[in-house]
Write a structure and sequence with these properties.
The structure holds two protein chains of two kinds. By secondary structure, chain A is of the alpha+beta class. Chain A contains ten helices and 14 strands. In chain A, helix 5 packs across helix 6 (107-118) and helix 5 packs parallel to helix 8. Chain B is an alpha+beta fold. Chain B contains six helices and 15 strands. In chain B, helix 1 crosses helix 2. The chains are: A alpha+beta, B alpha+beta. Chains A and B meet through strand 3, strand 11, helix 9 and helix 10 of A and strand 1, helix 2, strand 2 and strand 9 of B. Strand 11 (267-277) of chain A pairs antiparallel with strand 9 (156-158) of chain B, so a sheet runs across the interface.
């Protein structure tokens, strides 16, 4: 067990409200040393229904009924935490990755499959462990010096996520860093740890951070998150699983969109089309736009790139247009265009559209071909 | 929710799902399904697809190359109650008419109409408590043109340096490019040395060639040409072949659409005939060759050149 896994942080520390960040080990070590008995925390201890955590298809509702509503809520939080991390791993882009699963036989398995469904992964039921992206998961209970700790693991193909969690007065918190195996880098991955704070606490704290393949690299960032009673969010107002995944995906795509365009001098402009979205807010492309993408992709080859120009906002901001560009990028990925070959162009700040303009919104898609050397 | 579905709808949905499982390889295909729609029939389709082994992906809008949609249209004709059930996956549309015999029994009233695919489908159906077989001839498929032929995709312009240079060099006698039946801009092959789609054909061999001859200043296909296209599709077209198609009009014409309209119109007419036989639009590369003078041996004066391109083995 690595140092960080054993450095479980659960302490009462009202003076350290908020989040503190530090590089490497110092703070976590401190946190581990300040282990203190917990006074009865005033936490929201609500639970969730079987339907909220059961997979849409192939779920085992009997096993979910056999646990309490609160335990279901805890499993949902853990599964959300894992899957929100997974959707930010480049090889696991939910828009284009299909995962192979067995029908879940455990409560945690049900929660994981439902979370993968909500995250937009393609899920294929298999009879054994077929497939490159076979999903497996485990839950192990350990008696440690810090009390009972449960170690959860989610593996998809070669990517393995694992983290320990512990229950304190009805709320569940991470008690280790998120360990990720099977990826080259954890840069640009942000943990969805705020969902644990929404349970509230009584001066509790947990550690947050990612370590790659169980080692404490020089760029390791660890923070402690203090959770107080005022952090509690009523059950009905907590972040939904869907919103957590959407936020994680958008964050990843926004990071991806920041990649600078390659030198276009090395390419020839080959084809161009203008896709028309019905209005400024829709994500529906429609049959005609999809047909155009299908026909345009037909001529795409490995050295080519596709540039998406969507920013048409009057005020120069690009939120709505970025969403449309991302939608087109998703469509390209759905047709097999690698993420590394499609680029979202920066906002061109064209000013002819008034902010109240809800007329059809254009997205320009340009196909560039590498110049023959 | 699935329990709420009438037995008749189950029969029809099962029929279409069984056809889909023959057109697409379930193990290698992930279907995209809108998560926002709460519909028992959608869930029933998901269950069936999942049983066949398809990957299922929930999406928020209409994302994906295999986006699934379906429609159930009821109509009455005198005392007859008819239902047209259709299932669309990506560019493939499957549809069939049914007669509602009673509240819990249907009878197929047509063959399965398939568009966007030439996949071989075997229909092996038996009568059951909820399904009556009135006519064994309906246990088959018919390949038809896409029901959404009118869907006009945005124009896909061609921007090549050659083209830009030619336009910059001054007005030409005839246009140098036009828009084909799929709204994709293509070069006028009278002036161009190679197909606009040549990059798609690099890794393929030409395995067959057929010329469809049209009447003077005419875009009418005629029975003989229809028969030739039937044979071309039925006997020579392979599963993953591409069809290159060049509509030609070289020589004087009295039509207002001119040589360009005539050439691309002929190409469109043959494209429609191929679509009507279930050939997917993306497998057809239609172009044109037009000029007020003869192209010599290179292209026919008033015909369409069909070529079959097969992946190199």
């Amino acid at each position: 067990m690595s140092f960080f896994k054993s450095a479980r942080c659960k302490h009462n520390n009202r003076d350290n409200a908020g989040i503190k960040q530090t590089r490497t080990v110092g703070l976590c070590l401190g946190a581990a040393m300040i282990l203190a008995s917990c006074a009865s925390p005033q936490v929201e201890t609500g639970g969730i229904s079987v339907e909220a955590v059961a997979p849409r298809i192939g779920g085992n509702t009997a096993i979910l009924q056999s646990i309490t509503a609160q335990e279901r809520a805890h499993l949902q939080l853990i599964a959300t935490n894992f899957v929100a991390t997974l959707v930010q791993i480049p090889a696991m882009q939910s828009g284009s990755a299909t995962l192979q699963i067995n029908n879940p036989a455990t409560a945690f398995g049900n929660a994981v499959v439902r979370a993968l469904e909500e995250a937009g992964f393609g899920l294929q039921r298999v009879s054994a462990d077929q497939g490159q992206n076979y999903v497996s998961y485990s839950k192990r209970l350990s008696e440690t010096e810090s009390g009972l700790v449960t170690d959860y693991t989610l593996a998809v193909g070669r990517v393995v996520l694992s983290r320990e969690f512990s229950v304190e007065a009805g709320a569940i918190y991470p008690s280790s860093l998120m360990n990720i195996d099977g990826v080259r880098s954890t840069d640009n991955i942000a943990l969805a740890d705020e969902i644990f704070s929404e349970q509230g606490g009584d001066g509790n704290a947990f550690i947050s951070g990612i370590q790659l393949a169980g080692s404490a690299g020089p760029d390791l960032i660890v923070r402690t998150v203090d959770v107080n009673s005022f952090d509690a969010v009523p059950l009905e107002k907590r972040s939904t699983q869907e919103s957590v995944f959407e936020k994680a995906r958008l964050r990843h795509r926004a990071q991806n969109a920041k990649r600078s365009l390659p030198d276009l001098q090395l390419f020839d402009k080959y084809r161009r089309t203008v896709l028309i979205f019905d209005n400024n807010s829709t994500q529906v492309m429609g049959r005609s736009n999809k047909l155009a993408v299908r026909l345009m992709i037909r001529e795409f080859s490995d050295d080519d790139i596709l540039v998406i120009k969507a920013c048409q906002d009057a005020d120069g901001s690009n939120d709505a247009s970025l969403n449309r560009a991302i939608r087109v990028e998703q469509e390209l990925a759905g047709f097999g265009v690698p993420n590394s070959s499609s680029y979202i162009a920066p906002c061109s700040r064209s000013g002819y559209r008034h902010t109240s303009d809800d007329s059809p919104s254009p997205v320009e898609l340009i196909h560039y071909r590498a110049k023959k050397s | 929710l699935i329990d709420q579905i009438p037995a008749t709808d189950r029969v029809m949905a099962e029929d279409l799902a069984a056809v889909a499982a023959q057109i697409f390889d379930p193990v290698g295909t992930t279907l995209q399904i809108n998560a926002a729609i709460e519909d028992p029939l959608r869930d029933f389709f998901i269950t069936k697809f999942s049983e066949y082994g398809f990957g299922i992906q929930y999406v928020s809008a209409d994302q994906g190359s295999n986006f699934v949609s379906y429609a159930r249209q009821a109509s009455t004709e005198g005392n007859r109650r008819n239902i047209r059930f259709s299932l669309t996956i990506g560019a493939v549309v499957m549809a069939r008419d049914y007669l509602l015999v009673s509240n819990n029994r249907v009878a197929p009233a047509s063959r399965f109409n398939l568009s966007g695919t030439r996949a071989t489908v075997t229909v092996d159906e038996k009568a059951s408590a909820n399904k009556r077989i009135d006519d064994a001839a309906f246990s088959a498929v018919t390949y038809i043109a896409s029901l959404d032929l009118d869907t006009q995709a945005p124009v896909i312009s061609l921007v090549t340096q050659d083209l830009v240079s030619q336009i910059a060099s001054g007005p030409a006698v005839t246009t140098l490019q036009g828009v084909n039946s799929s709204n994709v801009e293509v070069n006028n092959l009278f002036y161009s040395q190679s197909s606009t789609f040549s990059s798609l054909l690099d890794s393929r061999d030409r395995v067959d060639r057929q010329i469809i001859v049209f009447g003077n200043d005419s875009m009418i296909l005629g029975n003989t040409n229809k028969l030739l296209i039937d044979q071309f599709v039925a006997n020579r077209l392979g599963k993953d072949d591409l069809i290159s198609l060049v509509g030609c009009s070289n020589g004087p014409t009295a039509l207002a659409v001119g040589n360009e309209g005539l050439a691309l119109g002929r190409a469109q007419r043959v494209t429609e005939a191929l679509l009507a036989r279930g050939v997917a639009r993306e497998r057809i590369l239609d172009e044109g060759c037009w000029a007020p003078v003869s192209a010599g041996e290179k292209f026919p004066s008033r015909g369409v050149v069909l070529e079959l391109w097969r992946e190199q083995s």
